[in-house]
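In this supplementary section we document a worked example of the pipeline. Step one takes a protein sequence of length 72 as its only input; no multiple sequence alignment statistics are reported here. Step two produces a three-dimensional model, which step three serialises into structure tokens for compact storage. The input and output of this example are shown verbatim.
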Amino acid sequence: MICRKETMVEQKVTYTLEVNGKFIIIENVPARVCLKTGERFFSHETGERLQKMIWEDRKPIRVIETPIFEFA
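The serialised model returned by step three reads:
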């Protein structure tokens, strides 16, 4: 499904990824979100800032515990 300009909205989203066995969560990231598919698009500047935040050794604002299950 292709998103059209009229189906895109600006929203703040939560960006998550795993790096070296650790999960990283970044909240309130600006993105354009497709109302049809939920796909998120980030500007070039936002992508660069996300990379910088991920690789810097910054102290997080909080830490959460996450349960892990194996699909077997």
